[in-house]
């Protein structure tokens, strides 16, 4: 027995105004059998970077053939392209504004097509709600078995908008990076990874120096801890609290990793 097609949804629409529900309805109007899964609708308004990270964190874990509908689209109605892409074994529908950068990666195999077939859209699409009138119906069509090429012409994956990411700076005895995101727990997510930083060492942030630990519970409640988070990046957290509130830090704040100094023989 075949399982029903899956469509995930990610947006900055929230849940109070019916926008996310309208987009779901547009999917189901085309593919009534689709199983809808919310990745989340609480992305900060217009925050494409946060959406890209959230999509990259969750989408690759789904079964092959899942359609991922991601709409954080401050440029809706402008000249930006709408896209449908096959990346690895997954399908994505999103605006061409950098949102797909996290799942594309440097080595991902991708086939990308521009949304240019109005026969797949809702009639007379609103210029300010493409999530409902363009992206949603296209996602439903793909979930129902439509070929990727049916949405419009193929475009080079290299032509997609990419958001520049800050790169760590070499300090000689370590690396300097920055906080790139603050999650809902107040954890400070950095752009430093264990591969760049090496094993062990110390993290310096806002005048604090923290040894790298394994998990949040390695320190007492209320204390700060540095560790490698589930997405593979070094983060600074507070056990049973918010590191962002305690330190008064937001995205963009500098953070350093330094190797442990060897004692002289």
3D architecture notes:
- The protein has helices spanning 19-30, 48-58, 101-104, 130-143, 194-197, 243-247, and strands spanning 6-11, 35-40, 67-71, 82-87, 90-95, 110-114, 154-155, 169-170, 174-182, 188-190, 202-205, 208-213, 224-228, 234-238, 254-258.
- The chain is elongated, with a radius of gyration of 21 Å.
- The protein has a seven-stranded mixed sheet with strand order 2-1-3-5-4-6-7. It has a seven-stranded mixed beta barrel with strand order 9-10-14-13-12-11-15.
- It has 265 residues and is an alpha+beta fold.
- The chain folds into two domains: 6-159, S-adenosyl-l-methionine hydroxide adenosyltransferase, N-terminal (Rossmann fold); 169-258, Bacterial fluorinating enzyme like (Elongation Factor Tu (Ef-tu), domain 3), CATH 2.40.30.
- The chain contains six helices and 15 strands.
- The N and C termini lie far apart (68 Å).
SSE blueprint:
Layout: E1 6-11, H1 19-30, E2 35-40, H2 48-58, E3 67-71, E4 82-87, E5 90-95, H3 101-104, E6 110-114, H4 130-143, E7 154-155, E8 169-170, E9 174-182, E10 188-190, H5 194-197, E11 202-205, E12 208-213, E13 224-228, E14 234-238, H6 243-247, E15 254-258
Parallel strand pairs: 1-2, 1-3, 3-5, 12-13
Antiparallel strand pairs: 4-5, 4-6, 6-7, 8-9, 9-10, 9-15, 10-14, 11-12, 11-15, 13-14
């Amino acid at each position: 027995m075949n399982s029903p097609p899956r469509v995930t949804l990610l947006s900055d629409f929230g849940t109070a105004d019916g926008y996310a529900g309208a987009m779901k309805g547009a999917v189901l109007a085309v593919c009534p059998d689709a199983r809808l899964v919310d990745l989340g609708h609480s992305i900060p308004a217009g925050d494409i970077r946060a959406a890209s990270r959230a999509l990259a964190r969750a989408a690759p874990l789904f079964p092959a053939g899942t359609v991922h509908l991601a709409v954080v689209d401050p440029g809706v109605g402008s000249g930006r392209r709408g896209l449908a892409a096959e990346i690895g074994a997954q399908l994505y529908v999103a605006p061409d504004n950098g949102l797909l950068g996290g799942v594309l990666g440097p080595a991902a195999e991708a086939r990308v097509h521009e949304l240019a077939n109005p026969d797949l859209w809702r009639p007379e699409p609103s210029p300010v709600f493409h999530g409902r009138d363009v992206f949603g119906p296209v996602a439903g069509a793909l979930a129902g078995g439509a070929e990727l090429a049916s949405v419009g012409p193929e475009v080079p994956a290299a032509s997609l908008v990419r958001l520049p990411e800050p790169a760590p700076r070499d300090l000689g005895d370590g690396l300097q990076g920055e906080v790139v995101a603050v999650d809902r727990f107040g954890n400070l997510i950095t752009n430093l990874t264990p591969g760049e930083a090496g094993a062990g060492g110390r993290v310096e942030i806002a005048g604090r120096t923290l040894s790298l630990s394994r998990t949040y519970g390695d320190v007492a409640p209320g204390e700060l801890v540095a560790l490698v988070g589930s997405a593979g990046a070094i983060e600074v957290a507070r056990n049973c609290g918010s590191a962002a509130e305690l330190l008064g830090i937001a995205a963009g704040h500098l953070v350093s990793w330094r190797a442990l100094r060897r004692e002289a023989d």
